[in-house]
TrEMBL record, chain A:
Localisation per UniProt entry: Cell membrane
Gene Ontology CC terms, in alphabetical order: plasma membrane
Tree of life domain: Bacteria
Protein name: Rhamnose transport system ATP-binding protein
Domain ABC transporter, residue spans: 13-249, 259-503
TrEMBL record, chain B:
Classification via InterPro entries: ABC_transp_permease
Name of the protein: Autoinducer 2 import system permease protein LsrC
UniProt keyword list: Cell inner membrane, Cell membrane, Membrane, Transmembrane, Transmembrane helix, Transport
GO molecular function, one term: transmembrane transporter activity
Function: Part of the ABC transporter complex LsrABCD involved in autoinducer 2 (AI-2) import. Probably responsible for the translocation of the substrate across the membrane.
Cellular location(s): Cell membrane
Amino acid sequence: MTHPSDTGSAPVLALRDISKSFGAVRALRDVSLELFPGEVHALAGENGAGKSTLIKTLAGVHRPDAGQVLLDGAPVVFHGPGDARDAGIAVIYQEPTLFPDLSIAENIFMGRQPRRALGRIDHKAVHAATAALMQRLGVELDPDRPARGLSIADQQIVEIAKALSFDARVLIMDEPTAALTGSEVARLFGVVRTLREQGAAVLFISHRLEEIFEICQKVTTLRDGAWIASEPLHGMTEDDLVRRMVGRDLEELYPKQDVSPGEVALSVRRLTREGVFTDVSFDVRRGEIVGLAGLVGAGRTEVARAVFGIDRWDAGEVEVDGRELTNGAPSTAMAAGLALVPEDRRAQGLVMDMSIERNIGLTGLRTTVKAGLMDRGAERSRSLDWAVKLQVKYARIADTVNTLSGGNQQKVVLAKWLATGPKVLIVDEPTRGIDVGTKAEVHRLLSQLAADGVAVLMISSDLPEILGMADRVLVMHEGRLTAEISRTDATEETVMAAATGRTAA
Amino acid sequence: MTVISPNPAPVADVPKAGATRLVDRVFKMRELAILLVFLVMIAVTQAGNSEFLSEQGIKDLLLNATILVLVATGQSLVVITRNVDLSVGSTLGISAFAAGTYLQGGGNPVVAIALAVLLGIGFGLLNGLLVSLGQVPALVVTLGTLYIIRGIDSIWVGSRQITAADLPAGFVDFGSGGISAVPYLALIALAVLVATAYYLKHFGSGRELYALGSNPEAARLAGIPVRKRILAAYTFCGALAGLAGAMYLARFGNVDSGTGNGYELTVVSAVVVGGVVFTGGSGSVYGAALGALLLTSINSVLPALGVSSVWVLAINGILLILAIAVDRIVALRVASALKKRNARHA
Ligand SMILES: Nc1ncnc2c1ncn2[C@@H]1O[C@H](COP(=O)(O)OP(=O)(O)OP(=O)(O)O)[C@@H](O)[C@H]1O
Ligand SMILES: [Mg+2]
């Protein structure tokens, strides 16, 4: 990796002694950061450390309580996101911010469309520029398609395209890769490298440490809103970085316990949803963690949704403990002991303006209702129990979920479903957006659940996670199951071969 | 640095995916469907009563629709931003009376119309400020201004009344005149409609109205001046309600303190029947205008067919619920069609 020396060049954008509080929560305390042209700078820290808050301060979304933002060395005040954009700062936020009713092209160019005479929008140019962006990112998304119904990965792609669509001097990316798989990440990094060589300053956030080491030259670490260090990555190891973030050494990331699988708990037979997935059959036994791997768009999430009854299937059957489930009925699936932690947690897993306590409690209404009335005490103690187990970082359990950091929202969804005490647990991307420390904790929990006899189906795009946690790996490719690989035979090569359609030996 | 040239030169040939075509078709279909229902209704009526489509018949039909089309056009802009303006009926009433009072004193008709529009702009600004600054839902705010404006109107007007006899003959003739079967008023409404539609499609600030109705938080992050746009939408809506007041005066010549009472509900129905979605972000002013045309023509069709006009309200209601049901079903179908085509990693 080359090292552009920053001696001589001045920071394009800098934060000096920034503080920001939300009520009693001190999200940032005297944080400083300097971004140099031609450099990719990583921002590391656990969930709730203040990374997104810092980005929003740079982007003009939040006004700092104290401290300065410096642009080319001169103090500036951004009165809104528009000001920051006009200063050449492009931002990809952690949560996609699309307009569902508008086309992808309109989403990308909203507020700064190319114009023709009389200030009218040049629709042709907007379309062409969007098509060019999509080509550059290597995806086939129709620029005229509305954003509604895009998968999370595609939403993320549109966000990236949006940020690349103008001459940004500073590109800020808050977990842009969380929903992407290998090839897409590689494309993104290719684009980022080009930008860097052209002299852009980039700020990059990811909980995947290997990505930080791959693309970044420097790293700034935050812990509980406080600045810990800013240093070159050269010569650092992942363990060093984790120690900065967590403040201690980390235990085993994949604490898989050995279990001997019991009888079949979930049985899926020849399940088909036309145009989405075809002839999918598999079993998951008690005590087993089965990994479901594949590229984004292979149909894994769709299978999970159909099994749980959110989408209807066109043919096939699903059994839990020998009891057949009704097509398209999540309530019978839940009653049979099935739980699904969905991929799109913000949209499908949370009621954003309800409290943490109530969100976790939602799935347990059945057990916490006494004589038709809700037993709030029971709900609270149960919710607290799970919030603590998953180390959710919050001020008060009665706070609304939308005040939590992205990763902590994920944990609330996990807690909500784990709290149902399921017999069969389907988790879709269980550790997406979750920091390394908690990741190990989630893995330990899954492993513990399996040891207690729960059948776990784990969908994940994180190969090391699949390899580290699964007793058996199922691989999907273009809507079909293409391989079943035992723990001993599963390697990156065998799984990727099946996922990309090259039949493994 | 990244240069995505905004020239139309390298049009990469992106094949139009089937999903997009479907969605396009559905949205166009919505307007086509209303047009179809309208035409069938007219045809059936004509078959039952050959007098219906006489020159005067057509003229009446258009005249009746004109005022509603105008107000519905303004209302659409507000609804697109995920808001609503319930005060349009009151604004229409008070501007009509103001213009009438001015004309009664021997004023110039053009100034009278300008006066009505200005009054409308004033109330529009008031609504817009209250909605964009206060954290109160538009429904509540404009329900308040509905009563406030109506209250002012009642105190000011009392039991007075303006009749056609009080108005300059030229003004009244303009209100009922036209080029063969097409009334002048309808031409004005059409011009406003086409200009508004063009603005919404081709100007940045027009698209931003859709954006902020579709996702207000994202609009803020995209640097769209949300308050300014909402204020503008309300002001425009008020202006058109004012203009509609002047037209009302020209057409009917008869205005009192009750003019425009309850009109807001008809307007909102027209907008919703026309496919402007109440949760913001989608729909077109053409749709709203067609909705207005459909609703008003029912008023003329039923009497022409010898059906008692007591049915009009019930039928309006049925149309409204039908429209919402159709929207819902179409939305679900489109969503599932899009989902099935999501697999892009071929
Ligand atoms: N709007 C808000 N209101 C109240 N508290 C907030 C708000 N936004 C953030 N916080 C709090 O500020 C802290 C920092 O949150 P932030 O989103 O910056 O974390 P993060 O480092 O991005 O975490 P993650 O990795 O989970 O995305 C958290 O404790 C969070 O609960
Ligand atoms: Mg964050």
